[in-house]
Amino acid sequence: MDTPTLKQSVNQQREKLTLLLGKALLKLAKCCPPIMQLRIELEALLEAELPNIGYCKHLYVLDAQGVQVTANITRTGQDLSHFARNRMTRPYMQEIIGHTDFKLSEAYISRNKKRPSLTAIQVIRDESGERIGFLGADYDLRELPGSLGVYQEPNSWRQIKGDPAIRGGLFLQHRTESEMDRQLDMVLPLLQELILEHGVFHGKLHFSSNRGTIWLVDNPYSYRILNIEELCDPDICLAYPHMPYTQRAIVPAQQIMPVFNLFRTLRFADDNIYLRAGSLNVCNGMVALNFSCDGSHYLPYDEFLNNGVKFWFGALGV
């Protein structure tokens, strides 16, 4: 089965939330028609039902023209500041007119709390089926339940073009030999050793600026920055306790150096188009590349190795 895209995952989550939230709002909306002209009774109804509308932050009623006819009913009482507010121009109202009786809005940043939020709108109809108003409910995204787990990034090649100004001046610049360029026979084996024997699962080399960044299995929340002197000094292995190659790795140990050697080749292959930075994550198997044209590429390690050098000068599209 193909891994869903980020947009597909978001849509699946929205479908589940629609099922979760829609039933309760429909039930409450059916209680509103007899008292639509009675503000006090409407607010009392909303206050009584708010605990039954799971995760809801604000509950309110609008008339058929989208003007709010109740206060915002909250968990701490009534918020009168929104009474008589015309919400018809809000995006979630435009999306519901003439299309459906229930709409869960796209996420937006709330005006007051400045937090990602959703609004659900349920049409209120009288016995004849005429639309006489709307029931609105606001939700804070951080309080809604997650039902799909963490989104899984697909392992497929992705190209991201960078700054057009850099691309436009590409052939006016030339690679300048860096200290790391001169020390790669030390740097590459040392980074491989840190990955295989000292718990590093993600390593990135910044060839042009003579530095590296590493992430360790036992402390993945913090990265370490290594300067060129440290990247050339085998003694740094003493700073990181021995740890066998992580069992979570999907990159075979014997493929690490071929990846690094291809970094070296792409660094020196051309004076105008050259690799500025490259990284390998052995747990998700992804290689990331940044070139002098400011283009970035992300792809699985095996695809990277199989493509070879010639592929890249066509893929860069300069």
Structural notes for this entry:
This protein has 318 residues and is an alpha+beta fold. The protein has 2 domains: 6-143, Beta-Lactamase, CATH 3.30.450; 158-315, no CATH class. The protein has 9 helices and 14 strands. It has helices at residues 6-29, 39-49, 91-94, 164-168, 179-182, 184-197, 228-231, 256-268, 301-315; strands spanning 56-63, 72-74, 77-79, 102-104, 108-109, 116-125, 131-140, 158-160, 200-206, 211-216, 219-227, 275-281, 286-291, 296-300. It has a 7-stranded antiparallel β-sheet. Strands 1, 4, 5, 6 and 7 form a 5-stranded antiparallel β-sheet that branches. Strands 2-3 form a two-stranded antiparallel ribbon. α8 packs parallel to α9 (301-315).
Quickly describe the structure.
Helices cover 30% and strands 26% of the residues.
